[in-house]
Design goal:
Signal peptide: 1-18
Protein name: Fatty acid desaturase domain-containing protein
Structural class: mainly alpha
Shape: globular
Distance between the termini: 75 Å
Keywords: Signal
Largest sheet: 2 strands, parallel
Helix content: 40-55%
Mean pLDDT: 81
């Protein structure tokens, strides 16, 4: 009987059973039935959209991560290139900003990378962070002192901003795949949370800093059991190479792909040869001991008492 009741509206009002006089229910008017039949069902995502959704989102996240890391955090936007010149012209057209300075130079638009360049200057090639008194007196160290995680962690605010950055690409692309806005956000928001968890699981501990608490950002310690998986070892080594080569390659961190597409990926076998020797742990003060997976490249160690002033100097402050 229940199957008949489900099918009856589709068959027409003539097939609806009469209400029992003892049931107390009012029969459904034929007009109401017709209106219900005319109401379109919620749009369903097609098979192609279902299959393509996660690979597509991963690709968009990889591009967003790459662009943010390279052109914002490393301030490459500040250099003279097509995007910089395009933005100069936009501000000239809409805000009357001069294209050249009084001395005839290009009027460059400058941004700050949120302390990331200073973070590179503080990092030895074994991924530990310097803390000696001379370094602590530098402007770069003073900039990092305002952040308990010294520019290494994703706060909730950063995760929110990264999610906003994804919207201009994700919404139209997923609309093409057949997703509405709510369906898209139901995939995007959890994915960006996973990205923040992976970042915070990787980045602060690999530089000897503590786990990120929930009150500060995504608590990466939740994923700590994954630290010796092939994926984590790969992204750890990949980010090691980024530091060893002065922040000029391997811009992807959690979502490797765009470096390979744009030719900025450098494998460990190449960058390992360029690792600079670092002072022994007992030779100089550090913020902590890096947490690393088994089998990653190790920087040469300068024995205690043998480190020179040059050995204690920060890595290149790339601008």
């Amino acid at each position: 009987m229940s199957l008949f009741l489900l099918l009856a509206p589709a068959l027409g009002p003539a097939f609806l059973p009469a209400a029992s006089p003892h049931a107390g229910a009012t029969p459904m008017p034929a007009r109401t039935i017709a209106r219900a039949r005319a109401t379109p069902a919620p749009a369903m995502v097609g098979l192609f959209g279902q299959i393509a959704a996660l690979p597509t989102l991963y690709t968009l996240m990889s591009v967003n991560e790459y662009a943010t890391h390279r052109w914002y955090q490393h301030e490459e936007f500040n250099r003279d290139h097509a995007l910089q010149r395009f933005c100069q012209r936009l501000t000239h057209w809409f805000q009357k900003r001069p294209l050249v300075t009084e001395d005839g130079r290009n009027n460059m638009i400058k941004i700050r990378g949120g302390g990331h360049v200073e973070h590179h200057a503080e990092t030895y090639d074994d991924m530990s962070l310097k803390k000696d008194q001379k370094w602590r007196q530098s402007k770069a160290a003073a900039w990092l002192d305002a952040d308990p995680f010294r520019g290494t962690a994703f706060t909730w605010k950063v995760t929110f901003l990264m999610t906003l950055q994804m919207l201009p690409t994700t919404l139209p692309v997923f609309a093409i795949l057949g997703f509405n806005v709510l369906q898209t956000m139901a995939i995007l928001i959890p994915s960006m949370l996973v990205h923040a968890l992976v970042w915070n699981m990787l980045h602060p501990p690999m530089h000897g800093l503590p786990n990120v608490p929930f009150t500060f950002g995504a608590p990466g310690a939740i994923l700590a059991p994954l630290r010796n998986t092939p994926y984590f070892k790969y992204i750890y080594e990949n980010h090691q190479g980024h530091h060893v080569l002065g922040g000029q390659c391997n811009y992807n961190v959690c979502c490797p792909l765009t470096d390979h597409l744009l030719g900025t990926y450098v494998p460990a076998a190449t960058w390992q040869k360029r690792m600079r020797a670092v002072p022994a742990l007992e030779s100089t003060e550090r913020w902590g001991v890096p947490v690393e997976p088994k089998g990653v490249p190790q920087a040469p160690i300068i024995p205690a008492g043998k480190a020179t002033e040059e050995d204690l100097s920060p890595t290149a402050l790339i601008r």
